[in-house]
Amino acid sequence: MKKKNNISIKMNMLLCLLFTIFLGSCKKEESVNYADIMTEGEMNAELTAPPMVPKPVGNRTAMKLKLNMEIKEQEGTMTDGVKYTYWTFGGSVPGSFIRTRVGDEVEFHLKNHPDNKLPHNIDLHAVTGPGGGATSSLVAPGHEKVFSFKVINPGLYVYHCATAPVGMHIANGMYGLILVEPEGGLPPVDKEYYVMQGDFYTQGEYGAKGLQPFDMNKAVKETPDYVVFNGKVGSLTNGNELTAKVGETVRLFVGNGGPNLVSSFHVIGEIFDHVHVEGGNVINKNVQTTLIPAGGAAIVDFKVETPGTFILVDHSIFRAFNKGALGMLKVEGKENKNIYSGTIQEGIYLPEGGTIQKMPESTAVKTATPKRTAEERIKIGKEIFGTTCFACHQAEGQGIPNTFPPLAKSDYLNADSKRAIKTILHGLTGEVSVNGKKYNNVMPAQNLSDDEIANVLTYIYNSWGNNKTEVTPEMVKALR
Ligand SMILES: [Cu+2]
């Protein structure tokens, strides 16, 4: 009996040895109970608005963190000319980023501004306890609630309001992220940013002007008018781009507030070196697109090795190009021809005879064109350019050699504004000569309103050394 046992112990040791050699350690994964970690000292939690994040926890011990968050119901801009009443944690959508380390004890002060109309609360997915804190935090306007919790699971977690109707509070922007760093912190990187997707439901269609009320029917049907990063169209474009330098490592804390859609998060022209899948401990490597559930998050990082503009999208791609889920990361530095050569050769290939494709006509009832100043046209036109034209003509209107002609200092453009209007209305094909270079390609007709064409052309004519023509909707209408 004893002998047998001995043999089986020896067998076990041998197996373990083999395991260690071939598969790594035989030790069971250490399960630290973070609930037992004692806190040392006290500090005020740093909170940041997107796309910034507070500084890393580094090597600090677990502490008592005092956290002050104010709920504000406030009007903001969804996209140019479109206003929306956002309900916010800390004055931004998504709400303030909270950064903790495992074992921290958070003393949460939730304040509901006296000018607000409704009660709110907070459910933090990082909390172990009833409602994630929601049951202890319901707070009326002009009041403050205090509750505390210990963070015992490292990871990236969503927080959101959970006051009825829950969907409506989330749809109005009441969500954000709380990071619980592991002991010793996450590995250091050069740049860290906070990006969170959300879907919005307005009574008017995408782009319909004015203050747009929330539309409960569309929310129930899950047919959003806007799908955006950081609460609005263009939060990460047009001068608000994320930035990095060639050779740097970039970490994105990406969340999805929903309320409804699941995000297929992708960065065009990059591969994620690491993804903390669902914000947890599993690290996947070399990932193109990562799925972020509503009420979920992921931590992605990658090294930027070539300069350029990298586009953040929800790869459910109509959301990116038609509903706003598009951001940019601008990387500056020296080209690396080993990694990316640029175009080596370019020819024209038009198997279908190069007929001009038309974008489907919108069925929306066109509203009366508003009066605008040239400055307003330039501002709105810039947004239109950034979503419609830049993909071909490039961010600074510089075009792509042999394929897409430049709009910057374009002699073709500056010679004839009627011809430019017709190009956008009806498309353009056949050989054209721009600044002495020949192009023979196809520009599809763009499905834009008279006002939009006037705005985008006024923007282009007033940028990059062009001749400052102002184009009006009347001029466009006459040529339609
Ligand atoms: Cu709320």
From TrEMBL:
Its main location: periplasm. PROSITE patterns: CYTC (PS51007), PROKAR_LIPOPROTEIN (PS51257). Residues 1-27 form the signal peptide. Its cofactor is Cu(2+); FAD; Cu(+). The keyword Chloroplast does not apply. Its EC number is 1.7.2.1. It catalyses: nitric oxide + Fe(III)-[cytochrome c] + H2O = Fe(II)-[cytochrome c] + nitrite + 2 H(+). It is found in: Periplasm. GO terms for molecular function: nitrite reductase (NO-forming) activity. It comes from the Bacteria. Belongs to the multicopper oxidase family. This is Copper-containing nitrite reductase. The lineage of its organism: Bacteria, Pseudomonadati, Bacteroidota, Flavobacteriia, Flavobacteriales.
